[in-house]
Amino acid sequence: MMAFHSPFRSHEPMIFIPLPFVVALLLLILFVVVLRRDEEDEPNRPFLVLILLAALQSVLSGLRWGYEVQAIGVIMPVIAAMVPPLAYAGVSRLVRTSRRPLPVRIALHAVPTALILVLMAVWREPIDIALVLIFVGYALAILLLMRPGADALRLAPFEGAVPAYRAIIFTAAALSLSAAVDIFVFLDFTWAHGEHALTLISVSNLAALVILGIAAAAASRSRAPAEMVETGPRPETSEDKQTIATVDALMETRKLYRDANLNLDRLARKAGIPARQISAAINRAMDKNVSQYVNDYRIGEACRLLAATQKSVTEVMFEVGFQTKSNFNREFRRVTDMTPLAWRERKGGAEGSLASS
Predict the structure, then answer these.
(1) Rounded distance, CA 189 to CA 192, Å?
(2) Is the pLDDT of residue 53 over 80?
(3) pTM for the model
(4) How far apart are CA 238 and CA 3, in angstroms?
């Protein structure tokens, strides 16, 4: 390409700012936003560190490929090996309380980084393969933790469990994407002498870092540890009936569903029944999860309020325990197969016909 020589052009060199630096800045802003959002509660530290590590990786990528700082290539595999254990640790805090002591957990999650350090010192050829195995292994481990679905996040408010669950699935997808990039780069160097390596690394790794950062930020809304719930087709038991009767009584007499921050752990404390027992009983006896069970009560009261009062849909939504219109409308359609306004119009028309007759 021919250079354009302008008489007005400055003779001072332009500062080149690689795209990864911009991504790193956005991730740092995201970190600050999440930190401020969670300042009143105990934050999910592994996810916060994960966002910072993603920003650091982005900076290192900019230095390596934007300014050709070759020494960065020695650090990047070690930093990369820290990402999957941090992602798993963050998810594990949302899903269950580990029975292993904290030093043991730290030691176990330090193994991948230690492995890469050893390979950097004695045998660098299999580093790429080792990183692929680490990323894929942790992605599968995260998916294994999330087998029960959104109910696994038992301490998340019911309205926030599904978004957090989706964010965690995106986290596993980002780890898989990073592993796929490493495989494609390895094949590119083998067959095409690295002709497409720079493009693959720049685009795909940046995408993975952004996904990881955003997913960690979204999932960190559920901060407390939780246990996994049992799943599987098992017949309803007498204990299940008694459990549901107890929870039903709480819902009908104390209107617990009106609490927008209600979650499985809080419900379990109110009922004096283990969270796992409540979740399993509702799943077996009603073929639904706890979130749907609670929202059924919320929608039931919303229907009554829409038909019997002049309150706006938004007022009704907040009164029965929902926090967002999207979730309220979605659950209302699931239960009634119509929108809140359509329900009000239908019930209003029916009552008018009865009054005139």
Answers:
(1) 6
(2) yes
(3) 0.63
(4) 82
